[in-house]
Specification:
Length: 520
Amino acid sequence: MSSLGRTLFLLFIIVLATPVYSLAGDASQEQTRFDYAYRLYMQGAYDSAVKEFKDYLRDYPKGQYSDDAGYWLGKYYESTGKYEDALGQFKAIVTLLPSSDKAPASQFEIAGYWYDPSNPRHDYEKAIAEYLKIPFFYPDSPVVPDSLYYAALCQMKLRNYAKAEEELRALVQKYPSSELAPPAAYKLGMACLLQGKTDDALASFQSVRDKYPAGLFRQDALSAVELIMRAKEKRPLSVEYTYGAKGEAPGMLYKPTDAALDGQGGLYVSDSGNGRVQRFKAAAGSLTPDMPSLALPAMDKALQPVRPAGVAVGPRGRVYLTDSSLHRVQVYQPDGDLVLTIGRKGAEPGSLSAPSGIAVDEGGDIYIADTGNKRVDRFDPEGRFVRSAGSSGTSEDNFLKSPSGVAFDVEGNLLVTDSSTNQIYKYDQSGKLLAVAGSKSGAYSFGEPAGIGVDVVGNVYVVDRDKASVAVFDRDLKLLMEFPGQGGKKVFDTPSGIAVSGNGEVFVVDPGLNQIVVLK
């Protein structure tokens, strides 16, 4: 806890332990003071609200709304990234006002402090312990289902899938009317699936589809049922439709290289030949231009052409773009405002050389296929270098030579394609190599693997430029199918990038055709 957080915690204790000598009049005035501070907070006037909350606590140390004032101060500190100060506020409420209406919510925020992946100190084991205090100490609180759900999510982060299954099943059975029942049933399906219990997973996904027609994760559950049944019945992929034509006008494409989905029905396409990124609306079996292109300059300050390569969408809808010719990554707000530039040409840590694929994890960390430097680089959300993977190993097979595509599997591992070794590499988030699959002489032979994507049940899709195909693997990187198969009609020219949607559509970007080919 920071020194400010400790000070706030101690001051809050002193204030609550001090006899009440009201300086501000009757209960009506007290409520007026608190309501005014709360209204300022809800209106976004945070600096004024914080001052009023602090003044209220000074004048009403044991007031009727002291717990609420302390809670909203904690929420303010939390929202501004002052995690330690927020933790001090919430601990003070739980410790000194355990019977308060805000005590369960404060305990939930304490657990959330440890759960939050954007917090440098996040710790899933500690989060579980804090979440489970809520059903123990506050069994009648409305946040009990929330605490059980997030405790189970922590178990999944720790890969304790059997424990997660147990806790999620209990939540669904005990709280079937909770708004968290649908996502809990969906996560239950994932916990079963990751244990190899395909039939149990299918039953859970079907329950989301049938019991919760308007619930969260219903579309993902529908896709999971479809994908599991497709695998069971060995149904092949097929072309749903194609989009695109060569040109410079909005909606037209010239040598597109990659695509990424934003989870809101938007498909971002790296339109490399036109030096821009376009956003399309993907709905009802069609693509339509949805917004102006991101405002990329035609040339940089050194009069070098901008050539966007890989594209990804991260937290808060930010768009991440690699530029292989300028050896950098640029980060844009959804409205097109440039907010961050990462990298410069070079081989030293933090520098880049012809970057290609890019992926962003749930905490905002950025993973870049640093093709020219034969490694994958990780940067934090502010663009600070963290570490590299793939530039060392115990054998020659562990070294990357020409990393191209990057994506995360359903367990949070990093998948990397290498167009020189013709393999897929799987790393954990510390950079440790977990598995290698595919080669020119292995069980499945790639020609030149490029873009890579993952669907909601963990199947892995890899674009092969040389073979003009898409290979589909299960979570263990065992081949399920190839499209088009042997002897099949040619569909692609030189496919490069790929994105897989929540409803099971597969968007393949082909610079040779200047098109997006959509499979399902």
